[in-house]
Amino acid sequence: MDNKEVTLLKKALERQKKARQQAERILEEKSKELYDASLHLKETNKILENLLDQKTAEIDNVFVNIIDPYLIMDLGGKIIKMNGAAEEFLGFTKDDNVKLTELIHPNYKEYSKASFKSLYTTGLIRKFRPGIITKHNELKFIEVNGSLIKDKKGNVSGAQGVFRDVTSELEMKNLLDLQRQRLDIIVEHSPLGIWLTANDALVKVNATMQKMLGYTEEELQTINPMDITSLESLQASKDYRQKMFNGEIDDFSVVKKYLRKDGTSFSAKTSVNAVRNNKGELKYEVALIEDITQEIALEEEKKQLVKDLESSNKGLQEYAHIVSHDLKSPLRSISALTTWMYEDYKDKLDENGVYNLKMMQDKVESMDKLIDGILKYSTIKSDNLDNSIVDVNEVVQEIKDIIFIPDHVTVKTANKLPTIYADRTKIHQLIQNFLSNAVVHIEREKGLVEVGCEDRDTHWEFSVKDNGVGIPKEYHEKIFKIFQSIGNKERSTGIGLSIVKKIIDLYEGKVWLESEIGVGTTFFFTLKKQDENTTSN
């Protein structure tokens, strides 16, 4: 090998050496880069692992702490995971291997099948409301919102859902529905017509109102309430409704005439109430209509009867005056004649003749008293009461001064009598009849009559007590009827206590008695206090 070849080989070897050194240097650099990249990747993986653990913990924390019950189930319906709220509500844990479909109440099985089918078809389920049976055998109602769970490849692996307890809500809804049904029954079967409008448009009308008017509800939908109101009733209704619309009033009541479909009319008391929103604006008008056609007819009939009765009473009073005058005139003549005969012939007649003449005088006197009593009884009526302030103590004293009181009888007041607002003449008649009746029926050695009074809130309760012969129980009611009396007919016309009863009736009072034979009698009577009465002194 010559030098030239050696030189060439040396140069080639030198180039190869340099190339190897350069390759080693490049390899060293790349190895370092690879090592650095490996370290960086390791650190990155560690960060990612920590981040994944953190996110997983956060997700688990969210899962556990969701307020509403939350669960995950596989495709077979088995619950594989649920939060504390779900466990507490259902009473189960995921370890109980419970299938959600097994908890569905039998009445909701078909509904549930349709809902789950929709879930698998659309991927979502919204407001699914089944009834379920919990571990404690309680029927609960839930509302479920859920979706399907898919893996990385998009295959469905299960489903998840959040649900809430709507048991109380449904119970309240059912209660409201029941109350609404009951209210509808009440409205439909009410004896009153019920009309609900909004802005003059009919919202609801019950069967009674339809029957009153002769229209169906569909027909009334097209009719304004004003169109079925008689012309004379329109203005009053319009005025009130305008005030209601303006917020001046919330209700009113009027008597209106309504026009039926057949052209006839009827009168009705109409009570209207406003239903307002929270702004005070008129939302609805509720009208209650009561047919008072018969009541008005009866009232008119009553007025006519009262008018006829007043006319009849006036005629009877006039007749009583005429009869009294016509009877008293011959009685006075008979009385005068018997008196003259007694004075002229008492010495010429035998004992029987004198007795008969005296009896005739007594009978004439009794007849005169009877006529006076009838006249007084016929003139007692409420429209001629002349009420004023009356001191009853003074009235009793006046009566004691004018009536005959036997020497063995004492009349006194048991307590201070009140000052009342009443017709003095009527009160005088009333008490005088009681006192006159009492003093003539006392036959014991020492007679006593006491007048008393008690305040009974709305009435005065008077009493007249005597220690006379007493009144048998069978007469306690009869003696207050005209011409009814007991005992000596010469001393009683049978009209006095009937006058008493009539006066007491004028003052909306009552009269009764308590009596014991041989012990005495107490008459009680009440008089309603009048507007201008005063309290007792």
From TrEMBL:
GO biological process: regulation of DNA-templated transcription
Domain Histidine kinase: 322-531
Keyword annotations of the record: Coiled coil, Kinase, Phosphoprotein, Transferase
Transmembrane segments: none
Transferase as UniProt keyword: yes
Pfam families xrefs: HATPase_c (PF02518), HisKA (PF00512), PAS (PF00989), PAS_9 (PF13426)
Enzyme Commission number(s) of this protein: 2.7.13.3
Keyword Phosphoprotein: yes
Domain PAS residue range list: 55-96
Organism field: Maribacter vaceletii
Coiled coil region boundaries: 6-33
Taxonomic superkingdom: Bacteria
Enzyme category, top tier: transferase
Record-given protein name: histidine kinase
Catalytic activity: ATP + protein L-histidine = ADP + protein N-phospho-L-histidine
